[in-house]
Each structure stands twice: as C-alpha cells, then as structure tokens.
Give the backbone structure.
Amino acid sequence: MTVDDLMAMQPVIPVITIERVEDAIPLAAALAGAGLRVLEVTLRTPVALDCIREMATVPGAIVGAGTIVSAADVARARIAGATFIVTPGLSAATVAASRDAGIPILPGIATATELMAGLELGVRRFKFFPAEQAGGRAMLDAFRGPFSAVKFCPTGGISLDLARDYLKRPNVGCVGGGWVCPTKLIDAKKWDEIAALAREAAALPRG
C-alpha cells in the first residue's frame, strides 16, 4: 500500500491521542466501522505503541503511527504493527528508515524550503503541519504554482467546517483531524458518538 492509496481511501484521517489501552479496540472499531479505516495513532502517550498493537487486530483497520521524530521511532512503530508513518517535520533519517522498513511515510512540512528538501528525498506527498498556524488554505493555494505535482494532507487546527474547504483544493488529498475522536468522548467511552462523527467525516466530498 502506498501513501497515495492511503490518502485516497477516505477524506479524513483521524489523528488519535489515546491514554488507555482498554480504549484501543472499541475506538478503532467505531472509526473503521463508520468508514474511517486509516487511523493515525500519535506517539504522545506511554501506551501509544500498545494501542497500535491492539488496534491492528480490528478487522478493516489500517493503523499507522504519528508523531514519529526519529529513525528509532520508526523501528518501534513497525514492531508494534504500524503500517504507515507520519512525522510532524521533515527528517531524512525517518524517510530513509521508513523506506528501509518498507513502510509508507507522510512527512510533515510547513514551508517551501522544507518542501523542496522533501522533493530532493524523492517524496511527493506531505503532511502540511501545523496547517492553520502555518498559513492554512492560502498557503496551500500558494504552493500550487511552483509545486503542482505535490499533494498534501493538512493537519493541525482543522475542524469539520474547515475540512470542507480544504478538501475543495486540487492539491489536498485528504485532511488529518482529531475532531472525530475528541479526548472527552474517548474518556467517556462514547463510541456511538465517535462513530457518528466519523460517518459525517467519511461523507465529506473532495475536489
């Protein structure tokens, strides 16, 4: 599976921060069952790798690791069962480690300089992060001229309403967002409410 395959599967990739392993399977089942199969679990909590391991057992779920900041993180995520890698910034070491491991990577960029450095590494698909803080839709529109072959997954500060507008852009393949699985709903184990948010996100139009 390639990054293009992952980006094409759904308009929104949930960006998940999870605190308890017991929540991993019901959360993944709620999201995947509602049409959001590609899941990014951020390595922001001590149990993130264990959660990736658990979520990977859910039928239909395609689980990746986010907040990857080193080659060592790539190795740990791969062992845990991650099938793709997402980074907050551009790192030649993480790109190389992901390629060596045979795992698709979506590296983060926020500027034209970082984007050009990524192109030199052979990358053509990027996470635009933090999207709203780094110029948002206006920045992506500006990138289109000089970087017409590049597509993005903007992440950071994106809501359902903003996602609708981002997804209209031809250089946006999908968006990343945490609004479909907010911490308060995970803590309350409101899986039905999370599934409802996921269905709404999965139905967003593109292009």
